[in-house]
Amino acid sequence: HDYSFTELHLDVILLPLSLIAILGATVVAIFQDNVKRMLAYSSIAQIGYMTLGISLATATGLTAGIVHMFNHALIKGGLFMVMACVVYRTGTVRLHEMAGLGRQMPWTMAAFVAGGLSLIGVPLTAGFITKWYLMQALFEKGWWPIVALVLISSLLAVVYIWRVVEAAYFRAPAEQDVSAREAPLSMLAPAWGLIGINIYFGIDASFTTDLAARAAGVLLGIAP
User: Fold this and answer.
1) Cα distance between residue 25 and residue 19, in whole Å
2) Do 221 and 147 touch, CB atoms closer than 8 A?
3) Vertex 124, ends 119 and 126: CA angle to 5°?
4) Closest Cα to residue 88, out of 193, 191, 195, 197?
5) Mean pLDDT across the chain, nearest whole number?
6) Torsion of CA 111, 113, 118, 119, to 10 degrees
7) CB contact set of 192 (below 8 Å; sequence gap of 6+)
8) Burial (0-12, 13-18, 19+ Cβ within 10 Å), 182
């Protein structure tokens, strides 16, 4: 720890790179028409949250980074499974071709909405736990401008998630696309399984946060 953050100054390197990833990738995601590519750029932003936690070089910050690795695997794994369901039934993940899917594939798109809320960081989801710990770590440092940037990035995430919701629920499907139907249970079950676990760990995060805190203590050399 002392070598990494005192001699190598990794905090100085990681902090600006993390903020660039968080804000830059989020903005790029907003303008994507391919939803899988949108989620991929979102993942770059989420990695930025992880490295931001590491750059703080504190127990709370490192706990936030570690627990987000787990939470993000749940969130993005579930969302990509949802996209697999969409591709299976429609053959596309283009945003402009997903009009009306909220009515044609209600369980599939409901899973996307639930996962999207967690990606934004809405309370009672795993994504909220990460941002809660990250905010605590930033407050400990007194880094209010970065707190504001994290909040701005969360609001920007609302934009690209809303673009999918708006297409699926508030646009009528084209005449040639009215044949789409709900995905089979064999695909819905694992998608909802990940989304359900994500919600569970948003309600009771004691297991994941305790493990992350212990790992952070070991890495920082402050474990009991």
Assistant:
1) 10
2) no
3) 45
4) 191
5) 90
6) 110
7) 78, 107, 111
8) middle
pLDDT grade, residue 147 (50/70/90)? Answer: very high
C-alpha to C-alpha distance for 186 and 146, rounded to whole angstroms: 43
The count of other CB atoms within 10 Å of the CB of residue 12 is: 10
Q: Is the pLDDT confidence value at 7 over 80?
A: no
Stronger pLDDT, 101 or 179, i.e. the higher one: 101
Task: Give 206-219 pLDDT, tens digit per residue.
Answer: 999 999 999 988 88
DSSP class of residue 221 equals T
Rounded CA gap, 164 and 117, in Å? 12
pTM of the model: 0.90
Which residue from 23, 191, 183, 220 is spatially nearest to 91, judged by alpha carbons? 183
Task: Tally Cβ neighbours within 10 Å of residue 20.
Answer: 12
Phi first, then psi, for residue 100 (nearest 5°) are 80, 5
Return the pLDDT at 5.
64
Query: Using CB atoms within 10 A of its CB, is residue 5 exposed (0-12), middle (13-18) or buried (19+)?
Result: middle
d(CA 191, CA 85): 9
What average pLDDT score do residues 3-29 get? 84
Cβ atoms within 10 Å, residue 203: 11
**Single-letter code of the amino acid located at 50:** M
Residues 6+ apart with CB under 8 A from 13: none
pLDDT band at residue 8, thresholds of 50, 70 and 90? low
